[in-house]
Design goal:
With 158 residues, this protein is of the alpha+beta class. It is 43% helix and 44% strand. The chain is globular.
Length: 158
């Protein structure tokens, strides 16, 4: 008569080896994903710092050549943004304080998207600003690091 319990009870050494193989295989991927997320957030933050400090060259360097900026119902190419709206964004951010309220980062291979909610307070063109903003950035990995491919901004009064 066969002992059913011994036939279905897994060998603990086999389970330990299997667990070790899984952990060894997963750990580098988890570390890489965390590193990728940090690089993505760094690119997004560097873009905002460049805008706030009036560094148009630094901001444009983080935008891919085919970047698209969507705001206020309009779609701008990188060239359109550089020729117009960029200077207004730099002037706006120079007069306000923006605080990140919530942020989610997703990395899928060489593409990432970052959704950020922020609170902005200050003054711009004689108006008091107290707004809540939503931002979605799509980035791609390049040999020079993460670059912004698309931005969608929206905001409203708080």
């Amino acid at each position: 008569m066969m002992n059913r319990q011994s036939s279905i009870t897994p060998d603990r050494s086999v389970l330990r080896r299997l667990l070790l193989v899984v952990l060894i295989g997963v750990t580098p991927a988890v570390g890489a994903a965390q590193s990728d997320s940090a690089g993505v957030v760094h690119a997004v933050e560097a873009f905002h710092v460049a805008l706030a400090s009036g560094d148009s060259a630094g901001a444009l360097d983080l935008l891919s050549s085919d970047a698209v900026i969507l705001e206020g119902g309009y779609l701008e190419t990188r060239a359109n943004y550089a020729a117009g709206h960029l200077s207004a964004d730099m002037a706006f951010l120079a007069g306000v304080t923006r605080v990140v309220d919530d942020r989610t980062v997703t990395v899928a291979g060489d593409v990432a998207w970052v959704s950020t909610a922020s609170l902005t307070d200050g003054s711009y063109q004689g108006r008091d600003i107290h707004s809540r903003g939503a931002e979605l950035m799509v980035l791609s990995r390049t040999p020079d690091g993460w670059r912004i491919r698309a931005i969608h901004w929206s905001s409203g009064r708080r």
